[in-house]
Amino acid sequence: MIHARGLTREFKVKKETVTAVHGIDLDVEAGRLVAFLGPNGAGKSTTLRMLTTLLPPTSGTATVAGHDVGQNPAGVRARIGYVGQKNSAGENFLVRDELITQGRCYGLSTRDAAARADELLDLLDLVPLARRKPGTLSGGQRRRLDIALGLIHRPDLLFLDEPSTGLDPKSRADIWQHILRLRETFGTTLFLTTHYLEEADNMAERVVIIDGGKIIADGTAERLKNDLAGDHITITTSTEQEAATAARIGNGTATGTTVRLQVPNAAAALPDYLRTLDGSGIRVTTAETARPTLDDVFLALTGRSLTDDDIPA
């Protein structure tokens, strides 16, 4: 679905050349759900715009949905859908009419566009809203309409840029229910950005992290967390002196009476660690384990948090 080699984008800023994306290599197989993460200014949106033909690469090549983004951008656009961060629908048409118009723009006949509109209205639970104008819809309803507009021409690949940003938790869960249903119904390949790390962690089959215009991590969320972050053990002791000793024993860090360790498997390591501390005369008052997050992965790679910045770019 996506094959990029050496994808680079440079900009001129006050007569100086600034490289926003540095030679990205990326392959995405058909039918996958890939989350593309990175802090603000990492090159996430620039990469997305190149892959969707909205921005030409300075160098490198990319084939998306079987077509070269530079040599055949129209062929790419015919095979992909793109749902940006902002609402796509106008304010003057009714919801169903907006979908039909979008279908006609992609070359569908009026009959086929109407049939496809009705199919998507049903799939995305928009049938009761078909005769309303987009401006009267809630945030979650408008986002579902945006997704329907991106799917009207039956694309093989759908790009979603922050699909659930700004929505309340219930609407976010609803959007994800519909996104996952797309894969079950059509086998659509989904490539999305999100600043809700738990979404990428729980929903994506693959996570790609970009920082400074370069891909710094790529794999399943579970593998990245296991390989790059590890589990966490946190204990507290009666005194700071005991905490310092406990930290040395476990190769961890102590802050006051709190000790934190990073280990491959916290559930297996904690009993042995507690027995060792007990044998050393250290009284542990509390103990807990925690699985790492994708933010821990980014912290391990870069020394800072993914959430330090406002991630949407």
TrEMBL record:
It comes from the Bacteria. Signal peptide: none annotated. Coiled coil: none annotated. One of its GO terms (cellular component) is plasma membrane. Keywords: Antibiotic resistance, ATP-binding, Nucleotide-binding, Transport. This is ATP-binding cassette domain-containing protein. One of its GO terms (molecular function) is ATP hydrolysis activity.
